[in-house]
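Re-running the complex after MR caught last week's input typo. The corrected sequence lines follow. Everything else is unchanged.
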Amino acid sequence: MTAVANQKQSSSVHDITDDKPPFGSRFLTDEAEVWTQNAWDHVPAPDDQDEIISAALQRQRNNPVPEESQIHYNNRPARHWDTFYRNNANNFFKDRKWLHNEFRELVRATEANAGPVTIVEVGCGVGNSVFPLLATNTNPELTLHAFDYSQQAIKVLKSNPLYAAPPTGTIEAGVWDLTSDTLPEQVAPSSADIVIMVFVFSALHPNEWTQAVANVHRMLKPDGLVLFRDYGRYDMAQLRFKGGRLLDENFYIRGDKTRVYFFELDELALLFTGSRAEVQQAAATVVTEVMDEQADGTSIPLAASDLEEISVPDPQTHPILLSSPRPALFTTQQLGVDRRLLLNRKRQVKMYRVWMQAKFQKRSNEG
Ligand SMILES: C[S@@+](CC[C@H](N)C(=O)[O-])C[C@H]1O[C@@H](n2cnc3c(N)ncnc32)[C@H](O)[C@@H]1O
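Corrected-run output:
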């Protein structure tokens, strides 16, 4: 299967989860029931997962991308996304209708009486996150800014009829590189209430992470929120990469020349909050949330091993994060692993997906 086809499959994964109960509330108690649904939450990986991971990493490390090609892929990556959107227009990613289920702040921000709210999406693509928000928005004082470094993506986004005539609120899109050293001119420092980052951070080179986080921090108001969702370590999409795709540890080039990184919890915590210690803190929060769900009867107990998996930071943190002290820019409101077993019932295929989901809040004492 080509990487593009792989990606298509991962896109359809999002379709399956649309309009379903939020993050972590469908639990598989009886293995015999497995084929009765399209998706289950927090399903531990199969017993032989360690061997599957080792074999995949070995295969990938044995045949990494040669250095001269790395330069080619990492140089002006936006053009590869331009090609991607020229080939796929708005037919690839489905609308992310689940976004407001996962992040209730988005529901509040789009209510009629919410008052002035500014939301910025970085790496918006063709608008699969902003248009569902705009379509259901009843807040006349909502301002949506959508940025992507692919000119082609922004062109397609602007051709959406909702862009020219939003039912209420305003939307403005533009070309901007999240890793540049200035903010987009439409967004003043400390002016955004919410920044949405959905499957964009994984497209950056690890060398670009620090600047990207600094930019997001700079555009947010004190106490403003980052709503984050992206690929997690050893997701099925990572393990499927064959030889000739590995750029750096956990960082790959797809067949269409777009890049993708697979994150671990402690990496995200270090990047946004500056310390590993917050990982344990944050992980404990996630565990509590899951247990609260049990208390009100909506779910059933997690396996102990699953909880442990959430609360122990992975030692394989990218070296770039350990090379110098990180500033404590944000606090963590949510940081968790969303593990889902997705089933293709027709083909009787099980897919173990791993996503990271987080809410980071800009420290109020920061300007
Ligand atoms: C996987 S797509 C996700 C698109 C959109 N967020 C969604 O949910 O459908 C990743 C997007 O990030 C954009 N992107 C990657 N690196 C970027 C950067 N440095 N600055 C701005 N956009 C970037 C790509 O052009 C692409 O549109």
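None of the earlier attempt is carried over here. DSSP finds 15 helices and eleven strands in the chain. Residues 1-20, 277-313 have pLDDT under 50 and may be disordered.
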